[in-house]
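Supplementary Methods. Inverse-folding protocol.

Structures were first reduced to a discrete structure-token string of length 65. This string, shown here, constituted the complete conditioning input.
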């Protein structure tokens, strides 16, 4: 099981980098090798455990600018 580093994102968030090979296998990387903009749901399932689910973008209206 690979270990990933938690990193600072902005001033109020943290993030984890997901392997591009795994994202590519799910169709989440475009032809140019860039990760697609894709909504995901992050759910804390218990203390110290989170689940990331890819959700269908058509289930949500576009964000207003």
């Amino acid at each position: 099981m690979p270990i990933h580093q938690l990193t600072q994102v902005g001033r109020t968030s943290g993030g984890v980098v997901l392997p591009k090979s795994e994202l590519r296998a799910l169709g989440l990387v475009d032809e140019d090798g860039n990760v697609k903009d894709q909504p995901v749901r992050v759910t804390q399932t218990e203390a110290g455990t989170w689940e990331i689910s890819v959700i269908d973008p058509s289930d949500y209206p576009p964000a207003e600018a």
